[in-house]
């Protein structure tokens, strides 16, 4: 019987093969990653110190930004470093760890976006009971539930993957470790494992997205009874969240709700949701939210004034 421990190191093909293109990508993706960390970090800092941002919406937003930094950091730093290396390698243990944390933070973000939709539903459709529905204890429980859901999801993925035998070849056709590319180098049939991943990852994305969409359908129906100013403010807040949800759920459903493939488009879609989306989310929530912008401005003014003194 073939040993399952023959492969201890994996070779990653990367995104592009041309060295010149890789050097350009290094600069571009490094700037995007730094922007992701800075922008999301500013949101976390602003919400934590600003007394005007104490509502549940901003409580969840600060955790979403924290998850965005963590989610992007599981893939992007190594991806950027690999752009300067001719032969890109990762240990099998490192690959499994990357898969675990990538899916952990990814599903935590999906669940947080769903919770944020429920929060908007409570604020707009149940305003008289909102403070009771979304009190501090409930908010903390919901966030804890999101983290727990992410851990359970990732444990299932890893338990499925760690039992597979890897005896060669050891080349992964991707720029980071993910389940479908890793399944392709297992020296056994992975149909059952692929079906489990499809059910686990795909259904979480679809069910959460349907809950989110249903929440906003109810919200839109209820907005007919609000004043023009109330509708404008509510729609402005909801538009940011809907945009972020579509940017995240769209690629996730595209990649995990169908059989695995070797399409180049898969890598490009993965670049979008690992590198670009975490940065765009912070920008969208900042630029479209007057309260966050004003709080950041006050924080900056306070910093400048204290520096002058």
TrEMBL record:
Any GO molecular function: olfactory receptor activity
Transmembrane segments: 20-45, 57-76, 96-118, 138-160, 203-223, 235-256, 268-287
Main location: membrane
PANTHER family, per database record: OLFACTORY RECEPTOR (PTHR48002)
Stated family: Belongs to the G-protein coupled receptor 1 family.
Protein name per UniProt: Olfactory receptor
Top-rank taxon, per record: Eukaryota
Locations listed in the record: Cell membrane; Membrane
Bilayer disposition of the protein: Multi-pass membrane protein
InterPro entries reported for this sequence: GPCR_Rhodpsn, GPCR_Rhodpsn_7TM, Olfact_rcpt, Olfactory_Receptors
Domain named G-protein coupled receptors family 1 profile: residues: 39-285
A cellular component term, taken from the record's GO annotations: plasma membrane
Keywords: Cell membrane, G-protein coupled receptor, Membrane, Olfaction, Receptor, Sensory transduction, Transducer, Transmembrane, Transmembrane helix
């Amino acid at each position: 019987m073939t040993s399952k421990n023959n492969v201890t190191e994996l070779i990653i093909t990367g995104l592009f093969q041309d060295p010149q293109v890789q050097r350009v990508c290094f600069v571009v993706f490094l700037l995007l990653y730094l922007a992701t960390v800075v922008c999301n970090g500013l949101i976390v800092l602003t919400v934590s110190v600003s007394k005007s941002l104490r509502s549940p919406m901003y409580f969840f937003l600060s955790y979403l930004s924290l998850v965005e930094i963590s989610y992007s950091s599981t893939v992007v730093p190594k991806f950027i470093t690999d752009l300067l290396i001719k032969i890109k390698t990762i240990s099998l243990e490192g690959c499994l760890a990357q898969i675990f944390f990538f899916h952990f933070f990814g599903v935590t973000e999906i669940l947080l976006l769903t919770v944020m939709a429920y929060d908007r539903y409570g604020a707009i459709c149940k305003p008289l009971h909102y403070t009771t529905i979304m009190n501090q204890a409930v908010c903390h429980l919901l966030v804890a539930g999101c983290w727990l859901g992410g851990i359970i999801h990732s444990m299932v993925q890893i338990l499925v993957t760690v039992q597979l035998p890897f005896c060669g070849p050891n080349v992964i056709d991707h720029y980071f470790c993910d389940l479908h590319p890793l399944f392709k180098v297992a020296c056994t049939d992975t149909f059952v494992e692929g079906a489990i991943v499809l059910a686990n990852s795909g259904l979480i994305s679809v069910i959460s997205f349907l809950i989110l969409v249903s929440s906003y359908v109810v919200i839109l129906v209820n907005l007919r009874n609000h004043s023009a100013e109330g509708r404008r403010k509510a729609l402005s807040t909801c538009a940011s969240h809907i945009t972020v949800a579509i940017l995240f759920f769209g690629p996730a459903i595209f990649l995990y709700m169908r059989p695995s493939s070797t399409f180049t488009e898969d890598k490009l879609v993965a670049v979008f949701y690992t590198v670009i989306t975490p940065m765009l989310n912070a920008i969208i929530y900042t630029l479209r939210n007057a309260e966050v912008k004003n709080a950041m401005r006050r924080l900056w003014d306070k910093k400048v004034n204290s520096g002058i003194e």
